[in-house]
Amino acid sequence: MDTTGTLFMPSGASTISGEVDAVFNFILIAGSIIFAIVVGLIIFFSVRYRRRDKPGLTSGISHNLKLELTWTIIPVILVFFAFYFGFKTYLKMSIVPGNAIEIKATGQKWFWSFDYPEGVTTVNELVVPVDQPVKVLLSSQDVIHSFFVPNFRIKMDVLPNRYTVTWFEAHQKGEYNLFCAEYCGTEHSEMVGKVRVVSESEYQNWLEESSTAGEGMTPAEYGAKLYISKSCNTCHSIDGTAGNGPSFKNIFGKTEKFADGSQAVVDENYLRESILEPANKIVAGYQNIMPTYQGLVKDREIDALIAYMKTLSNEQQ
Amino acid sequence: MNTIESPNYMNAKKGILSWLFTLDHKRIGILYLIGIMAAFALGGILAMLIRMELIHPGQDIMDADTYNQVFTLHGAVMIFLFIIPSIPAALGNFFLPIMIGARDVAFPKLNLASWWIFIGGSLFAVFSMYAGAVDTGWTFYTPYSTKTGTAVISMTLGVFILGFSSIFTGLNFIVTIHKLRAPGLTWYKLPLFVWGLYATAIIQVLATPVLGMTLILLILERVFQIGIFDPAMGGDPVLFQHFFWFYSHPAVYIMILPGMGIISELISVFAHKKIFGYKAIAYSSLAIAFISFLVWGHHMFVSGQSEIAAMIFSFLTFLVGIPSGIKVFNWLTTLYKGSITFETPMLYALSFLFLFTIGGLTGIFLGALATDVHLHDTYFVVAHFHYVMVGGTVMAFMGGLHYWWPKMFGRMYNEKWAKFAALLIFVGFNITFFTQFILGSQGMPRRYYNYLDQYQPLHAFSSYGSWILGLGFLIAFIYLFYAAFKGRPAGRNPWGALTFEWETPSPPPTENFDKDPVLRHEPYDYDKVLVERTYPEK
Amino acid sequence: MNHKEGHPEFLAHHFAEPEQQHESAKFGMWVFLLTEILLFGGLFLAYTVFRSWNPDMFYNAHLALDRTLGAVNTVVLITSSLTMALAIRSIQLNRKKHSMYFLIATLVFAAVFLVIKYFEYSHKIHLGQLPGKYYTYTGIEGNNPHIFFGIYFAMTGLHGVHVIAGMIIISWILIRASRNHFSHEYYTPMEMTGLYWHLVDLIWIFLFPLFYLIG
Ligand code: HEA
Ligand code: HEA
Ligand code: CUA
Ligand SMILES: [Cu+2]
Question: What are the angstrom distances between the C-alpha of B432 and each of A35, A105, B55, B252, B472?
Fold first, then answer.
């Protein structure tokens, strides 16, 4: 459990988290008082007015205008405050500050990808500078997902064929969980990413590195990194166990059977096609659930992935 | 010594067919009771599987797809097969006519038809388990539900058919209450359970057709791809959410209003005191029914609706809390200066007060915009709705079941076992679901098969609680079942209550009363009338 | 309970008097009609939403419907409502024969309505003016005209199902009338059928302008 937050709320790391917590605590305290009164009265009356002897006639009181007005008006006032605080903070959460940097986030079954204006693309990892408003422009490739960062207290549904927006300004460096909060199928609970909040200079360095990623590594080493960072690993194992997709172990050079009965030998072209147009040939025994990586991986990255897959196959040479 | 009077509705005619084609509202009530108990057992077993799987992160007893099907079926079965018909169709059917001094509901054939429709719809829904199960969640959100490869059609068709059963019950009740009240039984002399059923029936009749239409459109979308909900074809998936919640928000009050009606009866009978604020309780039911049609958008605060819409929905949501509060405070005040006894029905009524207040107040966190953004689709919501549905409706249902069991079967259950089971249920419930408030506000999303390690302790705690809870229900069903056949005869009026049903023999004769009932006093006149209990407390 | 004596045959055991039974049936029927209106209400709402999103497309698409046939059908259905009312009037005056003739006339008009609808439908199917993915027609400008036809078929289809249901019920009433079940004292089922039939008519009176006239 995250121990820096309260019993209920996880630690707050964005500029609005404090305000949301204030609304939460207001309702929590007011609610607890009301609850205490209710339970207190149940217990008190139960003890005080329990039947001690033979049943008899009891008091016939059935009205008391003052009392009834009290328990109508006080709750009205309380909910009015709860409404007002909730709405005020919500407005703040909806209005994006003008100086925000904009990052495009795409949800698809079952991972997140982020496009930076600088041309960098990441999967399941959103890196942002601290103390800087960030506008996230959300859209989905398939069904509805929802972008949820508990520590920032933000959540926004991600819809197909439409853009939605959320924003945050992190004021605390660190690594925070990103969840998909709208049910989206088999791997809904694996659609989990990270938000990494770093200092402005680290951010610039990271952007720099990312746009020149892979330099100084062999293609296979780079491919191994991409295998993780592009989330291939959520569906494909490298040890031979079948996941949602076929394992990459010994993939290169083997003869693959397809759902339509045809077959083919796995070569570079086939691998490339499988990454960009996975729906073209469906491996027998699997479903057509792999997303297309068109636009998410550059040619250089495909080459690296293929090089990596080759190293997983002992038949290749 | 009390005896079982004969002939009564149970032994008047013999043979299974005399039950399956009966027009007697009491027998139909029993048929419904059997149906919904089966549904509850099925839904409960599925719930146990959910909790088993969630005891650790990763795979324990099933894979992700199976898990998704299990929680979908759990939700759909509990909502559409169990809780919506539960109180109205089972207890309401049995007692509404008797409580207003009528011989039957207005349309007995329609009543029987509604049971058969219920069975038909349930079979479709259960059939979808074999036909590949459904993995959409009980909310059937598009576009997921139009794309997934599972048996969405047979499930939605089942729910569509069940809707008619619900509409017919509601229609029957409205007409019965308007036209068949005993002479002299004016609106303000009706038992509050009847008011609760009346407000419920209005929602059933007004909201269910919209759900029916929504499901038809969903089916058309799946079969013909007409494109209404498909963004790629110019449609809008969020439109589906609007349609769905336009029914399903009022539906949550279909679930709670009859329960609140039962609580009004129980509190007054066992506090042995005139109900406080009769009219306030009666009208607040209608107020809730009315406002419930205007708040559906609070399920969609983060689905991209405009700020104005969110503001209005949030505001109206809070208004619903006020009439509910009025009821709670009226019940509390009824206890004041009472002569309270604590038989099992009363224990359930007090559990209801405790748990429903928690459930309702946590609804306020969800109705407030800023906090809902954080809490939406987390276990906080799961905890909220189990507190209102299980802590509210199921507690009221259990209370009503124990209260009226001696009337339905003429026999009393074992009070010791009953108290023990009630205790297990209360404790187990709180362990299971209070932990989920913490999980949810800590950020644990719902419908998650797998979760991060940091949530493990609370999940495990919740799972242990569910075993206590399940055991409590199991015990309750065993002794109730036993009591229906072997319990000691309870006599006409085991609790010394004043509504009509206690004036007739237990079990009642086929035409409900041996002579036409005459109104001698109002339902809660414990300040004027004292009736001997036929099954006195020890 | 001695409600056996003076208890007419048609009076169910749980009602005290015919008046109460009649009132209950009528009230129940009105509530039922309300649910029907709400059932269609969902579709009217979908119509409104999509129309407001695509006003031009709705206008262009509605030109594809045949106004003349629509108008004829409107007249046919209104006439059938009239004959239905006359059937009830006749039984109130104890003219069983007349009542049956009027019921038959109602059935005939309903059938004519369906035949005309059949011709409209088959023409559209022929042209490929169909809902969703079956839409193949190319002559209509605007975004997603298939949605117009999706809603058109859903609404007129559901209405058609109601017409067919109505015909079944009217036939049943006709049979009961021929067996002398009804008289000026008791004709509740026929009256209820009439109410239902008027609603089916009324819904069409909304559908006609929405689809054929203003698009
Ligand atoms: C029996 C069913 C039932 C009942 C009665 C309620 C009652 C209420 N519900 Fe709940 N709700 C559900 C069943 C129910 N709900 C379900 C099933 C879902 C989730 C569906 C899904 O997504 O799967 C849900 C979800 C849900 C949401 C959406 C959450 C989300 O997904 O983000 C919201 C948001 O506003 C909400 C609010 C409320 C409120 C304000 C009430 C109020 O009516 C509560 C009123 C009661 C009280 C407030 C307590 C008593 C009052 C007092 C003691 C007086 C003092 C009070 C004040 C000062 C306020 N509910
Ligand atoms: C009335 C409604 C109702 C009821 C009573 C319950 C009861 C329970 N529910 Fe459920 N639940 C829902 C409605 C309900 N639920 C809904 C709508 C959802 C959302 C689904 C979705 O997301 O789509 C949900 C989701 C849900 C989840 C979240 C799943 C997820 O998001 O991943 C969990 C997890 O703990 C859960 C647990 C439980 C438990 C432990 C019980 C326990 O209270 C159950 C206890 C009962 C029993 C154990 C039965 C015992 C009885 C017998 C054994 C009787 C035998 C009798 C005879 C043979 C006559 N439920
Ligand atoms: Cu994506 Cu859940
Ligand atoms: Cu709601």
Answer: 20, 36, 12, 21, 13
Question: Which region among B210-224, B356-370, B471-485 has the lowest average model confidence (pLDDT)?
Answer: B210-224
Report the number of distinct structural domains present in chain C: 1
The CATH number that applies at residue A117 is 2.60.40.420
Give the model's confidence band at B371: pLDDT under 50 very low, under 70 low, under 90 confident, else very high.
very high
Residue A317 falls within a domain, yes or no?
A: no
Neighbours of A56 (CB within 10 A): 10
- Specify whether A228 is located in the same domain as A298: yes
Q: Which residues in chain B are contacts of C196 at CB distance < 8 A?
A: none
Flag whether A53 is in a domain.
no
Partner residue facing C143 (CB), from B106, B226, B234:
B234
Domains detected in chain B: 15-503 (1.20.210.10)
pLDDT along chain A (317 residues), means of 10: 70 91 94 95 94 83 89 93 93 91 91 87 90 94 93 94 92 93 92 93 87 76 83 83 84 85 86 87 84 80 87 65
Cβ-Cβ pairs closer than 8 A, A with B, add up to 270
Do A254 and A282 reside in the same domain of the chain? yes
Cβ contact A–B (≥3 pairs, < 8 Å): yes
- The residue among A211, A232, A261 that closes a domain is A211
C-beta neighbour count of A201 within 10 angstroms: 9
Per-residue burial over C186-207, b = 16 or more CB atoms within 10 Å of its CB, e = otherwise: bbbbbbbbbbbbebbbbbbeeb
pTM, two decimals, is 0.90
What are the C-alpha distances in Å from B393 to residues A301, B254, B261, B387?
Answer: 57, 10, 10, 9
Ligand 3 atom nearest A187 alpha carbon: 2
Q: Is residue C82 part of a domain?
A: yes
What's A7's domain CATH number? 1.10.287
Q: What is the pLDDT of residues B342-359, one digit of tens each?
A: 999 999 999 999 999 999
- Tell me if the bond preceding B507 is cis, omega within 30° of 0: yes
Asked if B103 and C14 come within 8 Å (Cβ–Cβ), the reply is yes
Q: Which domain holds residue A230?
A: 219-311
Asked if residue B447 lies in contact with residue A183, where contact means CB atoms within 8 angstroms, the answer is: yes
Is residue C87 in a domain?
A: yes
* Residue C161, domain CATH: 1.20.120.80
Instruction: Give me the CATH number covering residue A279.
Output: 1.10.760.10
Which tokens hold the place of A172? 């605390």
Please state, in angstroms and rounded to a whole number, the distance separating the CA atoms of residues B153 and B212: 13
Q: What are phi and psi of A167, to 5 degrees?
A: -150, 160
| Cβ–Cβ contact B64 with A under 8 A | yes
Give the H/E segment covering residue A127. strand A125-129
Q: Which has the closest alpha carbon to A42: B336, B418, B348, B276?
A: B336
Nearest ligand to the CA atom of A26: 1
Give the count of domains, chain A.
3
Pairing of strands B411-412, B488-489: antiparallel
- Residue C202's domain spans which residues? 17-137+152-212
